[in-house]
Amino acid sequence: MKKIYLCAISNISSGNCSEDCSFCTQSAYNNADIKKYKEKDINTIVNEALLAKQNRATGFCLVSAGKGLNDKKVEFVCKAALAVSSKVNDLNLIACNGTATKEQLKELKKCGIKSYNHNLETSKEYYPNICSTHSWDERYKTCLNIKEVGLKLCAGGIFGLGESENDRESFLNSLKELSPNSIPLNFFHPNPALPLENKIFDMQQALHWIEKVSLALPNSRIMVAGGREITFKDKWPEIFKYGANSIVIGNYLTTKGNQAKEDIKAITALGYEIADSCK
Questions:
Q1: Pairing of strands 221-224, 157-159
Q2: Rounded CA gap, 256 and 187, in Å?
Q3: How far apart are CA 173 and CA 231, in angstroms?
Q4: Can you give the pLDDT at residue 86?
Q5: Which residues lie below 8 Å from residue 255, measured CB to CB, with a gap of 6+?
Q6: Which of 15, 94, 123, 261 could form a disulfide linkage to 171, CB 3.0–4.6 angstroms apart?
């Protein structure tokens, strides 16, 4: 029986990001109407982790806005990770805090972080079209750092940013080089504040690329993350037939997700088993 892995995320530091990523509502350049705060209350983060566990998530990701880690952010992520670990058992803690050095990643590892998520977003060639304040190479280097310090690498990207088929092939080749443990595939969620075309990615194309990535990286977990609800609508369970075996449950960083209980009901109705561990 196919196992489906559930992951929940917590936006622990939202908005006011200094980077100009054209797909992101958290960028200060885009002035989107979202909640903005520097540090979420630790007790709130712990309660979100408890809810994630209750909703059968095996992974819980601590996500912060901004280009990357600094001393203050490392300290805050560690504080949150230790607080969650003290209250919630058997939950794989993931950090997603931008570019990171090996020294910073080692500190997170000491505090109980098991995986680190840093997406390539798109191809190296297309990246300058969606961000000018940092380079794709910095992102790739962070992914290498993650692997070198012994953390599990979670790295994927976003479809529907205006990239070409050649860009998607190049992006896939870069993923093959990295061979991540988990690959989150996101599909652009339009927002009027963003400079990109207000267009939802085609569902058949999305299924095609889920299948293509899963076949190219058979040992990686294929997660369908942001944009699942608007891209696939009520046909989202189709993703499992095309190689996906993981989803994000609950809300995303700045957008609403499905009710977790409804996703769980849909998965079990199809005869899939919900994993109780990330191992």
A1: unpaired
A2: 14
A3: 24
A4: 96
A5: 189, 226
A6: 123
Task: State both tokens at 95.
Answer: 């950090």
Residue bearing tokens 């994993």: 275
For residues 17 and 213, give the distance between their C-alpha atoms in angstroms, rounded to a whole number.
30
Helix (H, G, I), strand (E, B) or coil at 111: coil
Closest CA to 73 of 48, 49, 50, 96: 96
Write the burial class of residue 135 (CB in 10 Å: 0-12 exposed, 13-18 middle, 19+ buried): middle
Beta bridge partners of 63: 11, 96
Model confidence over 53-73: pLDDT tens digits? 999 999 999 999 889 999 999
Q: Return the ∠ at Cα 199 (arms to 134 and 157), rounded to 5°.
A: 40
C-alpha dihedral (201, 203, 207, 210), degrees to nearest 10: 30
Contact 142, 102 (CB under 8 A): no
In the numeric block, the tokens 């029986």 are attached to 1
What structural domains does the chain harbor?
3-274 (3.20.20.70)
